[in-house]
């Protein structure tokens, strides 16, 4: 089965994808379906035969990998489309339940307006704080762990409610933080502190962010670190989805190059009608 391009015998994946193309699915969707279905095929090669139980095991494996519900459901949609095409509605998989939305969603243009407004007003520390939440996903509860030492390293591990959380500071933000630290004389300990040396507390952060939203014309209910963290997660997921398409495209291009180099030559007379 691993070499046949099939999940269920007699139903090639590529034929299903051709049907999806004929139904005017976008090329990106078809590429994503291809990646999902060949992943399912390979999983079934190790855990088959195909059954309701083995398919549910594959579904659970996607969840255990830590994929976002949206990504898991994309895999399931591809599998269900294929199973319907095979005439096996009895094997259809139920989608995973996405968690309730955590408040209003901040858009990227709104986030950029916040940065522009903070820069125009000269609110440098607030500018850096907004950028920190939106580009690293650091929880507000870990703000005191964002230290000068951590910024200089560029990456590390934070402790969030007893669990380790990887932290990576993007190069552009890291340089801005290093410049800020040099100009304000912060060489050790937390970076985001008040003039008296105390870490910015929650109420002060929310108050300053509400003022920034008001000045930037962004809805006030989005003036919180959670909305910025959600933007970070949404952006990361968008990048992952695009990378999945690019990986499959690069793989197909590699196979096409190999085909041109060593593929079996087509018979130019094949299919031609014979005339007397």
Spell out the key features of this protein.
elongated; 276 residues; single chain; two-stranded antiparallel ribbon; mainly alpha; 2 strands; 10 helices
Care to give the gist of this entry?
The chain has 276 residues and is mostly helical. It has ten helices and two strands, in the order αααααααββααα.
The unreliable regions are none
H/E element sequence: HHHHHHHEEHHH
Number of strands: 2
Class by SSE composition: mainly alpha
Question: What features would you describe in this structure?
Answer:
The protein is mainly α and 276 residues long. Strands 1-2 form a two-stranded antiparallel sheet. The protein is elongated and about 80 Å long. The mean pLDDT is 88.
């Amino acid at each position: 089965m691993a070499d046949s391009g099939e999940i269920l015998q007699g139903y090639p994946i590529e034929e299903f994808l051709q049907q999806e193309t004929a139904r005017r699915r976008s090329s990106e969707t078809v590429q994503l379906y291809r990646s999902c279905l060949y992943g399912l095929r390979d999983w079934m090669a190790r855990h088959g035969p195909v059954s309701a139980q083995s398919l549910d095991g594959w579904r659970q494996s996607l969840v255990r990998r830590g994929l976002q519900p949206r990504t898991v459901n994309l895999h399931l949609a591809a599998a269900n489309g294929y199973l319907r095409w095979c005439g096996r509605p009895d094997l259809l998989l139920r989608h995973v339940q996405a968690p309730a939305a955590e408040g209003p969603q901040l858009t990227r243009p709104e986030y950029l307006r916040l940065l522009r407004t903070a820069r125009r007003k000269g609110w440098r520390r607030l500018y850096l704080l907004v950028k920190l939440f939106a580009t690293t996903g650091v929880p507000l509860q870990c703000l005191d762990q964002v230290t000068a030492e951590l910024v200089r390293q560029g990456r590390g591990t934070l402790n969030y409610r007893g669990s380790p959380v990887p932290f990576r500071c993007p190069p552009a933000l890291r340089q801005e933080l290093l410049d800020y630290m040099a100009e304000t004389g912060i060489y050790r300990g937390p970076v985001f502190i008040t003039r008296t040396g105390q870490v910015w507390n929650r109420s002060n952060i929310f108050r300053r962010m509400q003022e920034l939203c008001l000045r930037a014309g962004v809805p006030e209910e989005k003036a919180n670190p959670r909305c910025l963290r959600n933007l970070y997660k949404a952006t990361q997921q968008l990048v992952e989805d695009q990378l999945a398409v690019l990986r499959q495209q690069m793989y197909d291009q590699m196979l096409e190059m190999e085909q041109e180099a060593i593929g079996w030559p087509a018979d130019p007379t094949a299919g031609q009608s014979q005339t007397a």
